[in-house]
Specification:
With 89 residues, this protein is mostly helical. The model has no long low-confidence stretch (mean pLDDT 91).
């Protein structure tokens, strides 16, 4: 006894085709949403890095400006001291 299997072909209706297309669209949208979330995470991480770099640069600029002011003050004080010495002796 051999069993014979018969394949039945079920024709797709217009509604079935639309349903399949909608299901594919839904899956594609789900994949796209996942990609968008991952991209947002990457962008946020990069923005955090940029903000940290900008903070460091700001601190360096402040430090450099303070250092320059101290240097300028020292040079002026030394110049005044030299002038005072020259004119008083």
């Amino acid at each position: 006894m051999q069993q014979q299997t018969k394949e039945k072909t079920i024709p797709l209706t217009r509604d079935d085709f639309i349903f399949l297309q909608l299901r594919e669209l839904k899956d594609s949208m789900r994949d796209l949403n996942v990609e968008i979330r991952e991209t947002r995470k990457e962008i946020n991480a990069r923005m955090d890095k940029l903000e940290n770099r900008m903070d460091r640069l700001e601190n360096e600029m402040r430090s450099t400006a303070r250092h320059s002011q101290i240097m300028a003050g020292s040079v002026v004080a030394i110049a005044l001291g030299v002038l005072y010495f020259v004119f008083t002796h």
